[in-house]
């Protein structure tokens, strides 16, 4: 007893969906019972024109507020993005320094480098760097990722005989 062609999907995510269904009055209880048997949640919707009008006004007010705040936000981001990026790179440099001292000890005798290889040359670069610096950490050749050594966290990141941190500068690609 559903009104023909009245079912509409309003929203869907990974594990649930929201549907609108129009029913005849005499079939509401039967529909609710059958839906609960199939593990659906049924909620009533009562049309109230005053609430709908208030919601529409709220949406237009929020849209105008968003448009007003967008310009100053963009200007603020242009000014402060460079400061945040510089701080982020400094933190990466501090991590390289600390990791080098912890791995190789004192006195500090190392050179930090920033490399940007092509994707097709990445494997070859890793092989060359491993050959050049395998003498620095003899345990790196013996360690495999299946071994669980406390403090190394090999399951979370790869381990090389040199200190390696990835700096992903493509900040426009969002990974959800």
UniProtKB/TrEMBL annotation:
Protein family: Belongs to the V-ATPase C subunit family.
SUPFAM superfamilies xrefs: Vacuolar ATP synthase subunit C
Transmembrane residue ranges: none
Keyword Kinase: no
Subunit text: V-ATPase is a heteromultimeric enzyme made up of two complexes: the ATP-hydrolytic V1 complex and the proton translocation V0 complex. The V1 complex consists of three catalytic AB heterodimers that form a heterohexamer, three peripheral stalks each consisting of EG heterodimers, one central rotor including subunits D and F, and the regulatory subunits C and H. The proton translocation complex V0 consists of the proton transport subunit a, a ring of proteolipid subunits c9c'', rotary subunit d, subunits e and f, and two accessory subunits.
Known function: Subunit of the V1 complex of vacuolar(H+)-ATPase (V-ATPase), a multisubunit enzyme composed of a peripheral complex (V1) that hydrolyzes ATP and a membrane integral complex (V0) that translocates protons. V-ATPase is responsible for acidifying and maintaining the pH of intracellular compartments and in some cell types, is targeted to the plasma membrane, where it is responsible for acidifying the extracellular environment. Subunit C is necessary for the assembly of the catalytic sector of the enzyme and is likely to have a specific function in its catalytic activity.
Key word Iron-sulfur present: no
The protein's name in its UniProt record: V-type proton ATPase subunit C
Gene source species: Xenoophorus captivus
Keywords: Acetylation, Hydrogen ion transport, Ion transport, Transport
């Amino acid at each position: 007893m559903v009104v023909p062609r009245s079912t509409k999907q309003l929203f869907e995510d990974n594990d649930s969906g929201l549907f609108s269904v129009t029913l005849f009055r005499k079939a509401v209880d039967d529909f609710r019972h059958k839906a609960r048997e199939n593990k659906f949640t049924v909620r009533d919707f009562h049309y109230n024109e005053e609430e709908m009008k208030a919601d529409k006004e709220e949406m237009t007010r929020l849209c105008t507020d968003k448009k007003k705040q967008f310009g100053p936000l963009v200007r603020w981001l242009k000014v402060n993005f460079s400061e945040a990026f510089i701080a982020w790179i400094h933190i990466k440099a501090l991590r390289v320094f600390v990791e080098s001292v912890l791995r190789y000890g004192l006195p500090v005798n190392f050179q930090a480098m920033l490399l940007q290889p092509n994707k097709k040359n990445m494997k070859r670069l890793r092989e060359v760097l491993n050959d050049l610096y395998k003498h620095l950490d003899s345990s790196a050749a013996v360690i495999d990722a299946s071994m669980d050594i406390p403090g190394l966290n090999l399951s979370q990141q790869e381990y090389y005989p040199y200190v390696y941190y990835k700096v992903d500068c493509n900040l426009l690609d969002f990974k959800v």
